[in-house]
Amino acid sequence: MPAHRELQAAFGAALTGTGVPPGVIATGDVARRFAVYRNTVQHSLTDALSQRFPVIRRLVGARFFDAVAGVFIRAHPPRSPVIAVYGAAFADFLDGFPPARRLAYLPDVARLEWARGLAFHAADAAALTPAAFADATAHDPDRVALTLHPCLHLLGSDYPVVSIWRANQPGADPAPLPAGGEAALIFRDAGDVPVLPLDPPTFRMIGALAAGKPMGAALAHADQDQIARTLSTLLRHGLIVGTAPFQNTRFP
Amino acid sequence: MSFPTGLPPATGIGFKRAHFDGLHATRTGLGFIEIHAENYMGAGGPPHAQLAALRADYALSVHGVGLSIGGAGPLDATHLARLRTLCDRYQPDSFSEHLAWSSHDDAFLNDLLPLPYDDATLATVCAHIDQVQTALGRPMLLENPSTYLTFEASTLAETDFLAEITRRTGCGLLLDINNVFVSCTNHVADPRAYLSVFPLHAVGEIHLGGHDAEDLPSGPLLIDSHAAPVADPVWTLYAETIAATGPLPTLIEWDNDVPDLPVLLAEARRADAILDGVRHARAS
């Protein structure tokens, strides 16, 4: 089968490069007809990235986005036929992409959009009701660890990523952006994936709970109001799906 | 005579998420829906919730677009396992894939690419189809491609290649009549001649999609865009084919610039009318 393999290697190389592979026949204009394949590959992958990173596209404009996508696709072609997982490397790529350096917030906005896709496709899990949560944590809350919903993602940034994301939704009013960083809670709610801003202590607490720390340690150094707000945010959005007695997996 | 699947000999459409409300628990008259397998390989969330709900309303065709059955290298075992998980979960009435390749080494090219037709590629494709049918525990349908090029290395006609695949593997065929029209126009061949030697007895489903057209100095270039209504000559070929085979499960395929659901349902009704016409002609 070497002939077939070599032919596909040449065909694949021409798709992402230039020229026409050897051994193909067309009724004239062979380059134009081969270009149908090259264009489909380029357009379909650019489309996939546009759908995954619509705010990045809006921020940089369609022409610049298509050019960036072209460079990204050549550097990082998909490795899987599951296009929903294509673009994991896009945020880091933007980080190192000199023409985008002036827009320093772009990589974090891309991370936020990537996390929204992960949340959308994450596994399903049944939420604990507030009553079940109260029961499970009534005895010794300090030693109980929470299992948070697989759709939950957290993103902290030196840039106001939540405000940037919201200002670039279809129909959003242009609003002045706050100075400084923002932290985001990203999760699935019915068919949608909302992005909520979190204050720094809440961001830290949810991060500690997500990392499996027992409630006692995760919620330490916070006042009762703050703890109540954090837990009620998680419960309201169905993001606590289980509890387990804390076990120190680092010992013995 | 046709290849048996669990799909009814009626019309279906490709399911798009925006159409969920219009399809779920509504009398659309559709006989089945078709999904692209690769869009349902996440762990959970709305895609699976919607598909599970629609599964109760419609027969289901799972149509893969990424297995690279025509690839020179081995099939992606991980991807085949994903397909098996999906089929186990939804128990589709049909599984189909393409006579094409889309992966080379470890890169996925996201297009259905053409292959030369000779004894060596025939053996490779048949081995891959055996592997798929064993892994999924069911026969599959293989779709004829739309192509813009052919190969100096080809020694077999596409129709002979497909007929030999069905004979060796026992798989059925998915006859895409738009693909026949697109390929034949691009290669200056007669679609009726192609269909007259197509192994119609092995067809388990028909696809009807739209194409784009460009006039080049060397002749027309048709592009299988799935972004337009089914063209009139394709409807005519469809009616002629159904008159020969009898009613077959028929899918309206519209994947890009997808219109509102009523536009798709109108296309489906046009196919229904052709199926009904053949039913009446055969009954009288």
What does this structure look like?
- The complex is a heterodimer of chains A (252) and B (284).
- By secondary structure, chain A is mainly alpha-helical.
- Chain A has helices spanning 2-16, 30-52, 54-60, 62-75, 90-95, 106-121, 130-137, 161-167, 200-210, 215-218, 224-236, and strands at residues 24-25, 144-148, 153-157, 182-186, 195-198, 240-245.
- Chain A folds into two domains: 1-103, no CATH class; 111-252.
- Chain A is built from eleven helices and six strands.
- In chain A, the strands form two sheets. Chain A has a three-stranded antiparallel beta sheet. Chain A has a two-stranded antiparallel ribbon with strand order 2-6.
- In chain A, α2 crosses α4 (62-75), α3 packs across α4 (62-75) and α3 packs antiparallel against α6.
- With 284 residues, chain B is α/β, with parallel strands linked by helices.
- Chain B has a single domain (11-283), classed as Divalent-metal-dependent TIM barrel enzymes (TIM Barrel), CATH 3.20.20.
- The two termini of chain B are 19 Å apart.
- Chains A and B meet through α1, β1, α2 and α6 of A and α2, β5, β6, α4 and β8 of B.
- β1 of chain A pairs antiparallel with β8 (150-151) of chain B, so a sheet runs across the interface.
How would you describe this structure in keywords?
heterodimer; A: 252 residues; mainly alpha; 2 domains; three-stranded antiparallel beta sheet; two-stranded antiparallel sheet; 11 helices; 6 strands; B: 284 residues; alpha/beta; TIM Barrel; eight-stranded parallel beta barrel; 13 strands; globular; DUF2063_N_sf (chain A); DNA-binding domain-containing protein (chain A); DNA-binding (chain A); DNA binding (chain A)
